[in-house]
């Protein structure tokens, strides 16, 4: 099955089972409007109808065929459907394709088609039984703020408004869940900076604005240590895990990100740093501006669209045309993959859903491409993979990928 057909199968079944998100619904109807997918769509409708086990015919074959064609036609409008139905007669003759058209209206456009109530109950029962017995909710805005004096504040439970004052900075939590540091930076101040740390758990994420106006998005299982107010000649921060930066420009005071034994130095730019301990390489992806990557062995300057990968031996490899959209999709609330291994996908899933992952049997080597909201339950993400031949089970926050 092609990646597109697998995606269409997932979207159709999600919509049919009433688990599709609004974004997935929009994506489904965009695919429906593409004539290239008519054969696959029709096959899916047939299967869904067969699952309902309804044998009573609803429409005349010619009318049903016309309805299906109108639905699949890119020029069709939902307003056309009631008019078509009103003109149907009570003829009992039917064919499978006609019933498929009826189901498409039933699934896609609401209460125009009525079926036997007992059959509906049986179908719903079957659908319920097919869903995983256990599931895991997605992560959310959760983080811990540690002040210089060791005091900790759980940001997901903290009130909006002023949380604390650190040196010359005032720390505010906004209504939309951001942490904002207010206070002028001082490039002539002496002495140790007042350091704070924001850390996200597995299943958490958070956004903050530093006192120079730079914005930082923290992915799950990550941390950012930074001065409450930047002082001296550089703006130095340190991260673990993954973070996306939009750095405020200040040529006289370079912004530097330290992770492991590597330094990323910028003046004003947009970039992503991924440095999880369970990943084989650290990746820095540049979207805008310029950055310099350096360690004890190598130095490399990135241009927009490039990505630097640092392996465990300290060697840096630069990719000229990195997939920046995939890299920063997490910041925009998406899982997005292009030719990704199941292991790579599941490492992301484990951090976001705060689950353990194990593999049972010999898992075929294959690559996956697709996109889905990070706001869905774990079973919905895994169902997208299931249509490409990956089986799974979820029990007590443990996901098992099976042959």
Automatic annotation (TrEMBL):
Residues in Protein FecR C-terminal domain copies: 335-401
Domain FecR protein: 197-292
Keyword Transmembrane helix: yes
Domain of life of the native organism: Bacteria
Keywords linked to the UniProt accession: Membrane, Transmembrane, Transmembrane helix
PANTHER family membership: PERIPLASMIC SIGNAL SENSOR AND SIGMA FACTOR ACTIVATOR FECR-RELATED (PTHR30273), PROTEIN FECR (PTHR30273:SF2)
Protein known as: FecR family protein
Organism: Mucilaginibacter pocheonensis
Organism placement in taxonomy: Bacteria, Pseudomonadati, Bacteroidota, Sphingobacteriia, Sphingobacteriales
